[in-house]
Specification:
By secondary structure, the chain is an alpha+beta fold. The chain has two domains: 93 residues, no CATH class; 151 residues, ADP-ribosylation fold, CATH 3.20.170. Helices cover 32% and strands 26% of the residues. The protein contains eight helices and 14 strands. The strands form four sheets. Strands 1-2-6-3-5-4 form a six-stranded mixed beta sheet, with helices on both faces. Helix 2 packs across helix 3 and helix 6 packs across helix 8. It is globular and about 55 Å long.
């Protein structure tokens, strides 16, 4: 295992990784990331929080270096399971970039979405902004007992952010909140709240967008007036079962229809 920069340890030897990680006394101060040869991108919790990113994912070099940069910002040590050549390649590609680049990168989505429950959406409209879980808890002590990400082993600082994404992932969060447990089945019936769309380029240009290698997010609060479309059951029609998959698809279709008429 090689320390290539302060707090960043590189190894391509999984057995070395396993021996090292078992000796860690303060797992909250450590994270890990593994670079693979496939399309996969997952997170996991095995003694320390970690994730895997495949080299067939566009921009994997940026994701790797964003992951390192974000976790160094939060004073965590990072174990990187990768060849030294791949690490050097990623460092070269990333040169001059940071986790809060104000330009959207070529591989990044032009539109990002935040999904929330109907109850939380009512608070968002009243406050005229989206707030992180931690900010909501500070201003409203009776808010949820704990963030759903706690069940995934997310680091505490994740709750300082409004999480943004694409596809059905945000609806899975809403479903999981309603069930009180992590549920990854996007075909289960649920009650959608609001699916709020943002222009990624605008968020980046205004210095609001942060990256951590796995997520796109905004710290503390995000003004609602920056949204470009909000989908709810009031303006989205679904025939048949209402599930995370069907609501996300219908909402995206309504968004695209709105965008093409502008």
């Amino acid at each position: 295992m090689i320390e290539v920069e302060k707090g960043v340890f590189i190894t391509s030897d999984l057995s070395c990784y396993n021996r090292f990680i078992k000796k860690i006394k303060t797992p909250e101060d450590w994270v890990s990331i593994k670079i693979t040869d496939d399309f996969c991108m997952t997170d996991r919790k095995n003694i320390v929080f970690g994730c895997s990113i495949g080299k067939k994912i566009d921009g994997w070099q940026f994701r790797l270096m964003d992951y390192i940069g974000y976790n160094r910002l939060h004073q965590r040590n990072i174990i990187v399971l990768v060849s030294i050549n791949d690490y050097n390649d990623a460092s070269k590609v990333y040169d001059g970039h940071t986790i809060d680049d104000r330009e959207l990168r070529s591989h990044e989505p032009e539109v990002l979405v935040h999904s929330t429950t109907w109850e939380n959406y009512r608070m968002i409209k009243e406050d005229e902004c989206l707030k992180s879980w931690n900010m909501l808890k500070r201003t409203l002590p009776t808010f949820e007992n704990e963030p759903i990400g706690l069940l995934l082993g997310d680091p505490d600082d994740i709750s300082d952010y409004i999480m943004l994404g694409t596809g059905v992932s945000g609806e899975i969060v809403v479903l999981s909140k309603q069930k009180g447990e992590i549920c990854m089945d996007c075909d289960v019936e649920y009650t959608p709240g609001a699916r709020i769309y943002f222009d990624s380029r605008v968020l980046a240009n205004q210095g609001l967008l942060e990256r951590d290698g796995l997520h796109y997010k905004v710290k503390d609060q995000l003004p609602l007036h920056l949204s470009i479309f909000i989908a709810t059951l009031e303006n989205v029609t679904i025939d048949g079962k209402i599930t995370p998959k069907t609501f996300a698809a219908a909402a995206d279709e309504a968004f695209e229809k709105m965008r093409t008429t502008l």
